[in-house]
Write a structure and sequence with these properties.
This protein is α/β, with parallel strands linked by helices and 327 residues long. It has helices spanning 2-29, 49-59, 72-81, 94-107, 132-160, 180-200, 218-221, 226-237, 243-246, 249-266, 271-282, 294-297, 299-305, 308-317; strands at 40-44, 64-69, 85-88, 114-117, 163-167, 206-212, 289-292. It is globular, with a radius of gyration of 22 Å. Bound molecules: NADP nicotinamide-adenine-dinucleotide phosphate. NADP nicotinamide-adenine-dinucleotide phosphate binds at residues 45, 47-51, 70-71, 89-92, 118-121, 141, 167, 169, 212, 214-215, 217-220. Residues 45, 47-51, 70-71, 89-92, 118-121, 141, 167, 169, 212, 214-215, 217-220 line the site of NADP nicotinamide-adenine-dinucleotide phosphate.
């Protein structure tokens, strides 16, 4: 009996030692980097927020940045800042997406190191007062534009054994109430990225997904106020609808006031996500997934993998004040 315990003890010890060595080896590999100088990188969503910050960072590293912006003004600003090219494109328009992809291939002579899909939209609201068109609008930018642009750029990424980088969100792992169109689009992006990663692995093209928690950018600054836009759109569409009893205007005002302030408090500097994007671009062994920000690594990690009855309770608590359920 004692001999058996001793053998088992040794097996556990050797297992633990092997696991620690493998973990340490993996950790050390994270620091192996390649220079980004003279590499062609396409970044979408460069008008503001994360995309803009990433471009500014890449310019300090001597990359050839192709910035895709929503507006001509942003293009001009970025040309002055030193990007190789800036194109304005409406990513919700599939022919425009294909046309801009052709331009990217042409200026980079078909040798792209990476495409970083930063552009995104959120159209928040509770399901009762979200028009169907909101789901389509969000899917168009957050999902279909990514699919269209990626496919068109694949030949150029294969040539360099480059990187395809998706900016998802913690909402791509955990669907929170009040943001269903965005959550659905990011879940779709996650599914697409998983399939893409396996398919492109035959050509050594890496696919990394970034899952930031709330960042201090224009998207989060206007997030709760945008509930009012959805509410008013549904008011136009169904002025006498029963949905108004569940989500009355007085409740909406209190909900927006309370939560706007909370979101401002938890929003972090987008530099945390830029650091992860840079790692995904320059590391010899990029990670498959980056949870950016402390809340992504803690609360959202638990909500992602924790027991569902418990995570449901926590999700319910995020609706403050709760909607009135008494007549
Ligand atoms: N902010 C957060 O808390 C947070 C958290 C997790 C993940 N993310 C993700 O991070 C990414 C960057 O967002 P952000 O926080 O930096 O917000 P942001 O400042 O609003 O940036 C989003 C960018 O996408 C562009 N865009 C939107 N619709 C477009 C269209 N139809 N065609 C072309 N460009 C379009 C926007 O341009 P316009 O403003 O001119 O429309 C803007 O430049 C998004 O994918 C977002 O889902 C953000």
């Amino acid at each position: 009996m004692t001999a058996l315990i001793s053998v088992l003890g040794w097996i556990v010890l050797i297992g633990l030692a092997g696991y620690s060595v493998a973990k340490g080896w993996h950790w050390l590999r994270r620091f192996q980097k390649m220079p980004l100088t003279d590499r062609w990188i396409v970044v979408t969503g460069c008008d503001s927020g994360l995309g803009r910050l990433l471009v500014e960072r890449l310019l300090t590293q001597g990359c050839w940045v192709i910035a895709l912006c929503h507006t001509k003004t942003a293009c001009e600003e970025l040309r002055e800042a030193g990007v190789a090219c800036a194109f304005d494109v409406d990513l919700s328009n599939p022919p425009e997406v294909l046309a801009v992809a052709e331009q990217c291939l042409s200026v980079s002579k078909g040798m792209l190191w990476s495409v970083v899909h930063c552009a995104g939209v959120a159209k928040p609201g509770f399901i009762d007062y979200l028009p169907l068109s909101y789901y389509r609008d969000v899917m168009e930018v957050n999902f279909f534009a990514v699919v269209g642009l990626t496919r068109a750029l694949l030949p150029a990424l294969r040539k360099t054994q480059g990187r395809c980088i998706m900016v998802s969100s913690v909402d791509g792992l955990v669907s929170l109430p009040g943001n269903a169109p965005y959550d659905a689009s990011k879940f779709a992006l996650e599914a697409y990225s998983d399939a893409l990663r396996a398919e492109l692995s035959f050509w050594d093209v890496h696919v990394s997904v970034i899952n930031p928690s709330t960042l201090r950018t224009p998207m989060s600054a206007t997030f709760f106020e945008s509930h009012r836009t959805a509410w008013s759109a549904m008011e136009q569409q169904e002025p006498e609808g029963i949905w108004r009893q569940y989500w009355p205007a007085v409740w909406l005002d209190r909900f927006i006031d309370k939560n706007s302030e909370n979101l401002r408090r938890i929003a972090v500097n987008p530099a945390v996500a830029v650091r992860d994007l840079e790692h995904a671009l320059a590391a010899k062994h990029p990670r498959l997934r980056y949870l950016s920000g402390t809340l992504a690594k803690t609360l959202f990690y638990f909500l992602w993998l924790g027991p569902e009855p418990l995570t449901l309770r926590i999700k319910r608590l995020t609706i403050q004040p709760p909607p009135p359920t008494e007549p």
